[in-house]
Design a protein that fits this description.
The protein is of the alpha+beta class. It contains five helices and three strands. It has a three-stranded antiparallel beta sheet. The radius of gyration is 17 Å and the shape is elongated.
Length: 116
C-alpha cells in the first residue's frame, strides 16, 4: 500500500466533516447529525472525536468558525469551509474514491484456492 493509505484511513472523519459543511456553516452537533442521517445511522461520530477533528481542521486552516445561536437558542460555534478546506475536500475525495474502488476490486475478486 502506498504511503497515503494509512493517512487516508485516519483522514476519513476529516473528509466526512468537510463534506458536511459544503452547504454552509454548521455547529458540531449538526455536523454529527448530518453524518448520521446521511448514512442512515450507519456512522455515528463520537463527540470527543468530532470536536478534536474540528479543532485540528481549524488549526490547519481548512475551517473557519464564528459564534452564533443554534436552533435550540443556545450559543454555539459554527464551522464553515475555507478555500483550503474546499481544496482538501476535493483532494481527499479523489484519494478516498481510489481507495474505495481498490477495496471493491479485492472484495469482488473470485476466491482463490490456496495450495497446502
Amino acid at each position: 500500500m502506498r504511503d497515503d493509505g494509512l493517512n487516508l484511513l485516519q483522514g476519513t472523519l476529516d473528509i466526512l466533516v468537510l463534506k458536511s459543511l459544503t452547504s454552509g456553516p454548521l455547529h458540531g452537533y449538526a455536523v454529527a447529525r448530518w453524518i448520521r442521517e446521511t448514512t442512515d445511522d450507519a456512522l455515528q461520530i463520537e463527540e470527543g472525536a468530532l470536536y478534536t477533528a474540528l479543532h485540528r481542521m481549524e488549526k490547519r486552516g481548512w475551517l473557519e468558525s464564528d459564534w452564533g445561536i443554534s436552533e435550540n437558542k443556545r450559543k454555539a460555534k459554527f464551522y464553515s469551509l475555507s478555500s483550503s478546506g474546499r481544496k482538501q475536500l476535493r483532494d481527499g475525495t479523489r484519494t478516498w474514491s481510489r481507495y474505495a474502488e481498490a477495496v471493491s476490486k479485492v472484495l469482488g475478486a473470485p476466491e482463490v484456492e490456496v495450495a497446502r
